[in-house]
Amino acid sequence: MQDINEAVDKEDNCYFLGSIILANKNKTSWEINDGQQRMVTVSLICGCLCRIFHKYKQLDKEKLALRLLFDIEETSEYTLENVDELQPRLTP
Predict the structure, then answer these.
(1) Which residue, 49, 52, 85, 90, has most beta carbons within 10 Å?
(2) Burial of residue 36 (number of CB atoms within 10 Å: 0-12, 13-18, 19+)
(3) C-alpha to C-alpha distance for 2 and 74, rounded to whole angstroms
(4) The model's pTM
(5) In a structure prediction context, what are the per-residue pLDDT tens digits for the chain, which is 92 residues long?
(6) Which helix (H) or strand (E) holds 52?
(7) Which long-range contacts (CB under 8 A, 24 or more apart) does 41-45 make?
């Protein structure tokens, strides 16, 4: 996190998190062959951001973070309060 924070402070235009290797599991899903820990970490960060955005009533940002975590449409009205019924994008 410190490294990412330094990149933000430098106002870098990009940041390399590392590679992720996927394998086609079936017609509707992919399996992570390498990069599972990175994906879980990014998901946890998105979850924390959802809570922060929800707390400070930043609904547009909350919805964006939720779309990273769950398979929902851009125009959906889901918030952190009603995500129990949603399908997560990542299943460890």
Answers:
(1) 49
(2) middle
(3) 31
(4) 0.74
(5) 788 888 889 988 888 888 999 888 888 778 888 999 998 888 899 999 999 999 999 999 999 999 999 988 889 889 888 888 888 887 66
(6) helix 36-55
(7) 42/17, 43/68, 43/69, 43/90
